[in-house]
Amino acid sequence: MSDLYKSHLNWDIQLNFDNLEITKDAVPLPPKIPPRQIIGEKFPKILTRIELLWGTLELHNYLEHTLFTDRSNRHGFPEDVLKALGEIHNEHIWLLKQKNMISVDIWDINK
Q1: Which residues are within 8 A (CB) of 38 and not within 5 positions of it... i.e. 6 or more apart?
Q2: Segments in the chain below pLDDT 50
Q3: Domain segments of the chain: what residues?
């Protein structure tokens, strides 16, 4: 790269958010609704199954199948339910990893 281009680049960027003002037009974020509440309101049977199977490989397999189905005749979940199921799935994966019930790395599955 020539010196001409190098002289125009300034990588010394500093961000300062201390003086940000919230205007009257700013829209606050909606309060976060816990994932269990979202699922329970729209799909109470799924929530019951999650609660009964929590901490088991059976729930892990159920969530994997529910979230990542290859059946083409499904309509899918509403976006908020899908996000809630994803959060619960991630939390459950973390729990199973802590209990050494599932592998941390995909390449360790057959070990």
Answers
A1: 80, 81, 83, 84
A2: 110-111
A3: 36-68+78-105
